[in-house]
Structure of Bifunctional uridylyltransferase/uridylyl-removing enzyme:
Amino acid sequence: MKLPAQPPSSPLPETGTLSDADLRQAFRADKAAQIEKYRASGKIDTLMRGLARNADRTLSAIWQDCHLPGGLTLVAVGGYGRGELAPHSDIDILVLLPVEPDEALTGRLERFIGCAWDLGLDVGSSVRTIDQCIDEAVADITVQTSLLEARRIVGNTQLFERFLRETRHALDPRTFFQAKLLEMRQRHAKYQDTPYSLEPNCKESPGGLRDLQVIVWMARAAGLGSTWQEFEQSGLITAHEAQELRRNEFFLKTLRARLHILANRRQDVLVFDLQTALAEAFGYRASASRRASEPLMRRYYWAAKAVTQLSTILIQNIEARLNPDQSGITRVLSRHFVEKQGMIEIIADDLFEREPTAILEAFLLYEKIQGVKGLSARTLRALYNSRNRMTLGWRRDPENRRLFLEILQQPAGITRALRLMNQTSVLGSYLTNFGRIVGQMQHDLYHVYTVDQHILTVLRNIRRYGSSEHAHEYPFCSDLFANFERPWVLYVTALFHDIAKGRGGDHSILGTTDARRFCREHGIDENDSALIVWLVEHHLTMSQVAQKQDTSDPAVINAFADLVASERRLTALYLLTVADIRGTSPKVWNAWKGKLLEDLYRLTRQVLGGAAPDSHSDLARRREAARAELRLKLVPPGAEAPLWEQLDVSYFLRHEPGEIAWQTQKLLPFVTTDMPVVRARPSPIGEGLQVLVYSKDRPDLFASICGYFNRHGLSVQQALIHTTRHGYALDDFLVSDPNMEAHHRDIANLVEQELAAQLQSSKGLPDLSKGRLSRLSRAFPMTPRIDLRPDERGQYFILSLSANDRAGLLYSIAKVLAEHHIGVRAARIDTLGDRVEDVFLIEGGQLADSRTQIRLETELLGAIAI
């Protein structure tokens, strides 16, 4: 029987020796005293045991005051069963019964739990007999785990001892081990198999406290001990490993406790809002070049890495004890290594000390040998103990340089090999500048991983282009990659493209020095070296051109083609750019960015192939293709003429034939209408909603449209603004909504009706309060930037701005422009996580006046400021 999580309030019985107010005050006072004592001493184990004892005393008092029968037992389970509590951990208890309760006893138990809640104990409770406990444990590994650490608080001792015997007898150590291993893998997958997110969960993320707890549960179930000292005595770990485990466990427990105290609630995620205060609680202080949180987070990442490596050793050793009959050699892999239980194992414990080149050989074998799952505990331990062998001489050894390059040149297994090399600190020992960016934070509002994790994610993305099982994700990239000579050049580039982050200065320029040195030292030929260095220098260029410049302008394409200079460079840069953007955050990449990059790639390749951009021939091609689609839609020949006569060349160059045909079909009956026309459809590029607005132009039109989107929670991803020869605005928007996908057709119909009605209304532009910033933007506010300058032809002005993203930001910008009677000819809206980079092509005679420009820039800065 499971009682309600938080039963209705019920007062303590009058017969108790203490009133509920006295008991509540005593519980809170003791908890506060324990926390104050901890602040002075820093002894985390004393704090956690003290909080558990306080809960024990309070629950025992409630138990006595509720006069529960002597045949029952109150049992602490889960973390509370270990005799430890973090400041705001929940308190898991089991009321153990000899038989099923009757109605009267059920009522008493409910009063007991209700009193516990009233006194401020965050209890999670269950009421079961021993048989029910065993049945539940068999059905649910979580229940079985919580019972493994059961501890009697008060009540019948004989019942509790029988409970321990029978639950222990019902436990199958091998089954339990496999279940916990699968559970751990699922949990790690939930956190993308990395501890290196910028807001990790110090309890549940890979390398967190939960991993250490899983090891203890596995070993205890196998009868191998329940403390690091007992594991050392049983031979599962060495004395040094036990010391490292204790040290990192102490740090993680301390981190979690201080996080609870700061948040004043149960809080296990290291959110940006609390990282600075948490760092200061550890004694870190900000400097001119770094935030206080950065050294703390780096300390956390290194602890998580050590926990991951040491837990892997322990898990393998526990498995070997549970399955001793499977510990033989499967096959000989080389003169240095054999395979055991699917793992690569060294032939002698001192191998890496005697022959340091075997370190990289282990990872090369991990790539090349089919069927192996990783490095054995013995191999990992030897790696851990041979870190002093990875010296400057080891890095300069020609054999090691050959092996490392061979690792990068393998046709498969590169991602997993480099990730394991990073996990074991071998990658940072070989590439020392890579070691410097391990655990380095990125506060640019769109990266969600540390620099080293981002680099390895980019490399993984490139590798997946060549994997048949991932070819469906980005088929165009996969097609280009299949025909790209020496793809390992891209892997080298991925390793170095962000390696200079955090040094100060332009990391794209600084990184070229590292890349050039690597190529020279590893004997990479001149052409490939030049490509790698060029890609590192220009790895941001393609995304900037695609997202911030008008790629329908032949001059833009020609300039980009001059920079790229060859099709191999273009293809390499395109593949790297797609992988790089996708490796920043799941929120940054979308189909619209993909289309912009692909369009730029195709247009540039035409130029590099000798077909210079010819707006006249391209215009004719687009028109003919659009006419062909109109014929398929049963539009009579020549029917498009009245509308097309009002459209200039820029319209046709900025729209694909399919879009031209769709817009033409929708607008043919309304070429000279007095009423606003709005049409919407699911975006043909696969994400969001495409909204077409056709109306007589007026200064506040763009702002009115943006205001509507803002009120309905629609985020503008792209805006193509066009003014016809006869004074109509023909505007095309791509908008998105996280909740749109399931019902985008209903939203399309609603947008058509509501937006048209609003544009017809004569109401002015409403004032909107500034939208709330995200947690990330509040923690890392950026200085807003405005840049206003005439375009190269002097016909229009280009307005560029960057700021923290928030709801209503685009409307705030559009409203300022409307109030100054500034027309928007085109807009490029680019949202990078929690940061926006927007570019507007604007017009207005008053922009020629420098004072007007200053006034406009000042008001825009005020509109986008936090």
Notes: Residues 328-430 form a domain with the Hydrophobic Seed Protein fold (CATH 1.10.110.30). The chain has 39 helices and 17 strands. The radius of gyration is 33 Å. Confidence is low (pLDDT under 50) at residues 1-16.
